[in-house]
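note to self: dont lose this again. the chain is below, predicted strucutre after it. 211 aa total, dont forget to put it in the shared folder this time
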Amino acid sequence: MGSTPKLEYSEGKIGRALKFDGSFGLKLGSIEGNTHTASMWVKLSTPNLGACNSVLFGNRDGGTRSNENWISTRFIDGRPFLWSNGKGSSKIWLQHGASVAERWANYTYTVDENNNATLYVDGEKITSGKDGVDTPASKIDFYAGGTFWDGDVFYGYLDDVKIYDYALSDDQVYGLVHDDTDIPVEEKSCLRQLMISLRKHTISASVSEFL
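---
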């Protein structure tokens, strides 16, 4: 475990955003089970990023480098994509065709009770597919800005991260992004540590042990 980083904030999409410069990651918390939704506002620092840009990393059932089991929100050349891995092989790859680099974009994905994953950008459904892991996770630990591997880090800004222990519907995702109060979302099931910390302009989270 490393030392506590010096955190920098900037104007975000909603209040303040946390700047990630590739030197640290944050452990956010965990959920029980495999069904979930993750939503976040992201602004990349540069469009020339390649594929090594894990914004949110969900480590499933204590996976390791030698026994991989994870799901990760990423960007490849500015285009959002969702990638999962089980036992060293890719299980799903969902990608948006357009770059969203150097602007605020909402990145949301869901995994339902049947292990179907769906990618949304700015509240709009992009694509979906089956996450082909052998066994659905019983627990997922979430990290922002880093993974197991050196160099697999995030450069940019992150704001209003929300993780739910159930899959939101298409309408709920749209309402979440566009602040539609007519589409209720069960907030009590949300991991709110990072979101609350950003709004208070302080943060109390440990540095990811992956870095």
